[in-house]
Amino acid sequence: MRRIFSVLFLFTFINCFAQKLRTNYNEAAVPEYELPDLFESFKGRKIKRSEQWEKIRRPEILQLFTQEVYGKVPGVLEKPDVITYEASGDAFGGKAIRKQFDLVFSVNNRELSVGVLMYLPKTEGPVPVIVGYNFLGNHSIAGDVAIRISESWVNNNPSFGIVHNQFTEQSRGYDAERWDVEKILDAGFGLVTLFYGDVDPDRDDFEDGVQPLLYKEGQEEPAPDEWRAMAAWSWGLSRVMDYLESDSDVNNEQVVVFGHSRLGKAALWAAASDQRFAACISNNSGCMGAALSRRCFGETVAVVNRNFPQWFCGNFKKYNGFEDRLPVDQHMLLALIAPRPLYVGSASEDLWADPKGEFLATKIASSVYQLYDIPGIVAVKMPEPEHPVGGVISYHLRTGKHGVTSYDWDQYLAWAKKYVVQ
Ligand code: GCU
To answer: Which residues line ligand 1 (CB under 6 A)?
Structure first.
């Protein structure tokens, strides 16, 4: 038995290694490809006006992504109870209000508890907010000792105190560099954040997280056209949006959904599928986020599905190695956000996420913004690092690695002030 396990382990290891080697980072080796047409409807009609886009083409594209990529949400849960854990008017040296509460969903003796942390600037009237998931628990985004630690399952990482699949004190503030909370507050925005594992732990099983709350009798995993983790995470963002609509301290017409990396993918699908989000920021979201799949540069469909089978719906697996058969590509996902403000950020060394594919998708999606007389991205070539392009729909390439830096926040906040708050 042991020997079988060792052989299997070795095989997986060699396979992963070979996969990395096969990854294409060479622009000259990008295959020729043809993108699905944004403007031709199923019936072959040419879409020329924003009304036609909204009535005909947008719903078609939304349906294709739901059916073939993310999976549908199979039902509606009753409104959650909002259980306040703590509130204070004295966070960040008196600069901010802090609120912490759980959204508790219950059905058939099952319960899902999602912990939300909010910091709001102490200004008159309802404030605009940035909403986004964190990777390492609410307590990781700042050194604030009052932040409660999530008890949800999380991948072990003893180097920052995640043992027995649980967070410990050691990870408090661990990701503070990525979350410039004071900068966000100083720009006049509130921050609303939650741990993505509260909605669905990021592992390849379907016994935990939100899905079982909507299983039919005897169901043990989502059907091929039903949600897995990515759609569940986007669903969670919409449930936070429901809450924000009832919070008079927040301007619910100025809610910007933000996400980095896999959480950037979730933010994009949330903004595409829920038009209450006023704007979207996708940071280094890469494959099945903002990058064009057909370029097969960096991470590919087959690789993302193999490494993270729990993310996208069962139907999506048939496109492994067959990007050209996908009825959509990611320029269409970005276009679903039009005419709302959208900012896509890449990093120069983050080749795994294909910065050029992110730029091209953003540029091509901007043709839908033009239906609304919004100029879009006119730059023909990929911009140099630290030279953002666009307006309502914007793109930047930042020097450096995969991550969220203060350069990124400076751009996102200035842009949100201009296009979301006005
Ligand atoms: C992996 C994965 C990416 C994802 C990233 C992240 O690198 O392949 O698709 O964006 O993790 O979420 O950090």
So the answer is: 261-262, 286-287, 299, 304, 307, 352
